[in-house]
Amino acid sequence: MKNDDATSDNQIKCIWIDNQHFSHEKMVGLLKVFGDLLPDPMSERVDLDAYANKWLKNADILLAYDKDNIVGIRVLYANDLKTRYAHGLLLSILPSHQGLGIARKMYTETFTLAKQRGMTHIFHYVHYENQRMIKLNESLGYKVVGFQSPKIEMCLELT
User: Fold this and answer.
1) Alpha-carbon gap, residue 11 to 68, rounded angstroms
2) Contacts by 140-149 with C-beta closer than 8 Å and gap 24+?
3) Position 2 pLDDT exceeds 50
């Protein structure tokens, strides 16, 4: 369902951040806001400070902007040159902007980066309660490859 107050997809800009110039405090704040939108809120199960450090050091972080407001985040490891598997760590969109195609747009950006890095697959976990995300993943070609209750492991072969 689209939110009439939200901006259309063509006005959403996705930008990979420069991790070296992105503040740790801002990253912790984003993890609190976006990570806590998940069915299993991040702040209740991980140390956000430690995750912010690790992700700023090792991950690629894509932000979706509606004007000057961050409305979505995608975190990706695309650096395993041995297995060539990328790992999607987080994809979260503000409720006011869900249903506008932002997640699909962020996935497309993710696929491009992973291919540029020589990755052959992307896998991630989706909470089984998040049927909208499971359906989106399947529409993009992801396959269910495992279960780690309460999550489903999904994998996409990049072509």
Assistant:
1) 11
2) 140/104, 140/107
3) no
The model's confidence at residue 84, banded by pLDDT at 50, 70 and 90, is very high
What are the residue boundaries of the structural domains of the chain, listed by start?
9-157
Cβ(125)–Cβ(151) under 8 Å?
yes
d(CA 30, CA 115): 26
Q: Write the burial class of residue 60 (CB in 10 Å: 0-12 exposed, 13-18 middle, 19+ buried).
A: buried
pLDDT per residue over 14-38, tens digit each?
A: 999 998 889 999 999 999 999 999 9
State which fold the 9-157 domain adopts. Answer: Aminopeptidase (3.40.630)
